[in-house]
Every structure is written in C-alpha cells, then in structure tokens.
Amino acid sequence: MHELSIAESLMSLIAENARKSGARSVTRVSIVVGNLSGIVADSLKFCFDEVKKSTVAKDAELVVDEVSATAYCAKCETRFPVGQYVFNCPDCGEVIIPSGGKELYLKDMEVE
Questions:
Q1: How far apart are CA 103 and CA 39, in angstroms?
Q2: Any signal peptide, and if so, which residues (predicted)?
Q3: Which residues are CB-neighbours of 56 under 8 A, at least 6 positions away?
Q4: Burial readout 50-67 (b: 16 or more C-beta within 10 A, e: otherwise)
Q5: Using CA atoms, how far apart are residues 86 and 80, in angstroms rounded to an integer?
Q6: What is the pLDDT of residues 32-42, one digit of tens each?
Q7: So what's the pLDDT on residue 1?
Q8: Which class for 96: exposed (0-12), middle (13-18), buried (19 or more C-beta within 10 A)?
Q9: What is the DSSP string of the chain?
C-alpha cells in the first residue's frame, strides 16, 4: 500500500508549510491526483487520517481533486479524455500523444 508512504510524505510537507507560516493548526488540505497515478483516493484518505493524529493537521479534512488524463491525435486533431492507458486514437487509430493523469501535488491548505 504505497498510499501510506504518500500520506506520510504529505504530512511532512504540511508540517513544514505550517511551521513556515506560523500556523497553529491546519483545517483543510487539498491535493491533486491524476487518474493514471495508481493512487486510490479512499485508501489515501484512510492513511491520511491515521498519520495526521497528534500533528498540527490532526483535525484537517483531506480533499482529493482527481484530474483526468487527456490525449491528442495529431492526425485528426482530436483531444479526448483518457480513463486508462490508450495508445491509439479511438476515431482514426493513429498513435496518440498522452498528457497528464499522473499528477500528485499539494494544491493548497487552510490554516489557523
């Protein structure tokens, strides 16, 4: 379960940012996760709830914004969402250029 190590890394980043800003507590954390990242949002939320105990983010809500990968076909100039690994355009069969879907980053956090 790599979500645990991701939650631990996220907590380190949250603690560092909270310390730098002089925050007493973190109430909300928003992250962006790509749909092809292999991260299961519910598992990450569960792990986050475990690692946040006794930290500056102990009462924080984790909000996961999932973004979809897209692909571009140069032949028919079509851009379309990708829900899984796809290598060919569904319209013309040409090899596509994938974009995104593997994102994982801290978007913002609310502090007090």
A1: 10
A2: none
A3: 14, 15, 18, 19, 23, 24, 25, 26
A4: ebbeebbbeebebebeee
A5: 11
A6: 999 989 999 99
A7: 60
A8: buried
A9: -HHHHHHHHHHHHHHHHHHHHT-S-EEEEEEEEETTS---HHHHHHHHHHHTTTSTTTTPEEEEEEE-EEEEETTTTEEEEESS---B-TTT-PBPEEE----EEEEEEEE-
C-alpha–C-alpha distance, residues 24 and 71, integer Å: 43
- What is the pTM (predicted TM-score) of this model? 0.85
Other CB atoms within a 10 A radius of the CB of residue 93 amount to: 11
Which domains are seen in the chain, by residue range? 2-68+101-111 (3.30.2320.50)
pLDDT tens digits, 85-99: 778 898 999 999 888
